[in-house]
């Protein structure tokens, strides 16, 4: 395996150690000069990769406009999604339940669900729209099911639900489409699918990461990870705008397929989360970087699937599945109380 193809982190060092051990055996067989040279080159290559990785994780502190104010232990083995209620109540779905926490991070109660959930949205009345792998259920605050329906796509994999008025928006990453339902489960529209006549490029999803958020102007924001872009649509599916660029820079999206998760602040600024090089950022509606919420050092090293939610006060909930916690961030000039400080 060539040095440039090595994986990052501990695994890479493990591969290097095995290779170096193998070269040591070759040295015992009478190949000491070449083996020593190869060992030195391997070590230099590993050190160079470490330096690159450290540089990529660095963020100018002046760009970090948020701080972690509260850390909420989910108590779940596999937390999958987060949402805020109208009063700042925090909802976390995972395993086969939804857990409800106070605005300060204290567990209030848990509700058993019929199957493992993938995502959640909550309206002003406390009604919970919960997405499962191939179905959506509307649960009352008690947990009772008010309505439910299956999705009909050939490769259904639900990753996001969003509520807006009478609409239930569902992101189906398996079929690469965002679906619009009414609250009885009647399909009312589709968007995001390739349509050359309407100038829609189509959603590219190398992995199951598709998110949708509805703004106060009723426009929908959708991530297109394979294109390293975010797209804005009308409710009828017309593409209004698209922005985003590829790169390791802090104002770009890294890797093959980012951002994985999105949310909207009350003032229409956009929150994005990335995997690979985990970081959470704030962008203005036109795509210009506004600040950084969480740097790679603020999240688990392999954080992926960092679901996002925003409450009416602008607090940002970042799910860190690998740490099994929800990190609540506030702008640095604002204060919040409760929970466990990081």
Keywords:
342 residues; mainly beta; Neuraminidase; 2 domains; four-stranded antiparallel β-sheet; 14% helix; 38% strand; globular
Tell me what the CATH architecture of the largest domain is: 6 Propeller
Percent range of helical residues: 10-25%
What portion of the residues fall into strands of 2 or more residues?
Answer: 35-45%
* Cα-based radius of gyration, to the nearest Å: 22 Å
Please characterize this protein's 3D structure.
- The chain has 342 residues and is mainly beta.
- It has one helix spanning 9-57, and strands spanning 66-73, 79-84, 90-94, 97-101, 107-112, 117-122, 128-132, 135-139, 145-150, 158-164, 167-172, 177-182, 187-191, 212-214, 220-224, 229-233, 239-243, 261-264, 270-274, 279-283, 289-294, 308-310, 316-320, 325-331.
- It folds into two domains: 3-57; 61-331, Neuraminidase (6 Propeller).
- The chain is built from one helix and 24 strands.
- A four-stranded antiparallel sheet has the order 1-24-23-22, with no helix packed on it. A four-stranded antiparallel sheet has the order 2-3-4-5, with no helix packed on it. Strands 6-7-8-9 form a four-stranded antiparallel sheet, with no helix packed on it.
- A hairpin with a 5-residue loop joins strand 8 and strand 9.
- It starts with 8 loop residues before the first helix and ends in an 11-residue tail after the last strand.
């Amino acid at each position: 395996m060539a040095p440039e193809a090595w994986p990052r982190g501990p695994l890479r060092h493990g591969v290097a150690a095995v290779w170096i051990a193998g070269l040591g055996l070759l040295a015992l067989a009478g190949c000491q000069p070449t083996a020593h040279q190869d060992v030195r080159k391997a070590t230099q290559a590993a050190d160079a990769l470490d330096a690159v990785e450290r540089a990529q994780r660095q963020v100018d502190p002046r760009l970090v406009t948020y701080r972690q104010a509260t850390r909420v232990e989910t108590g779940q083995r596999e937390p999958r999604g987060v949402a805020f209620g109208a009063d700042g109540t925090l909802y976390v779905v995972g395993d086969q339940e939804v857990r409800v926490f106070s605005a300060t991070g204290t567990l209030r109660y848990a509700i058993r669900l019929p199957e493992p959930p993938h995502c959640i949205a909550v309206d002003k009345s406390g009604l919970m729209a919960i997405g499962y792998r191939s179905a959506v259920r509307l649960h009352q605050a008690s947990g009772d099911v008010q309505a439910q329906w299956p999705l009909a796509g050939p490769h259904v994999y639900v990753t996001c639900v969003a509520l807006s008025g009478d609409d239930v928006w569902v992101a189906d990453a398996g079929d690469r489409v965002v679906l619009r339902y009414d609250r009885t489960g009647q399909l009312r529209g589709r968007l995001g699918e390739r349509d050359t006549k309407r100038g829609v490029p189509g959603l590219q999803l190398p992995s199951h990461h598709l998110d949708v958020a509805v703004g106060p102007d009723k426009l929908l924001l959708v991530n297109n990870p394979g294109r390293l872009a975010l797209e804005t649509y009308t409710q009828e599916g017309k593409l209004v705008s698209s922005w985003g660029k590829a790169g390791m820079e802090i104002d770009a999206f890294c890797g093959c397929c980012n951002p994985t998760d999105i949310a909207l602040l009350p003032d229409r600024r956009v929150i994005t989360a990335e995997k690979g090089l985990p970081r959470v950022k704030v962008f203005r509606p036109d795509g210009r970087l506004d600040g950084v919420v969480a740097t790679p050092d603020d999240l688990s090293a392999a954080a992926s699937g960092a679901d996002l939610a925003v409450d009416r006060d602008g607090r940002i909930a970042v799910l860190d599945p690998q740490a099994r916690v929800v990190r609540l961030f506030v702008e640095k000039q604002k204060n919040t109380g409760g929970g466990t400080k990081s």
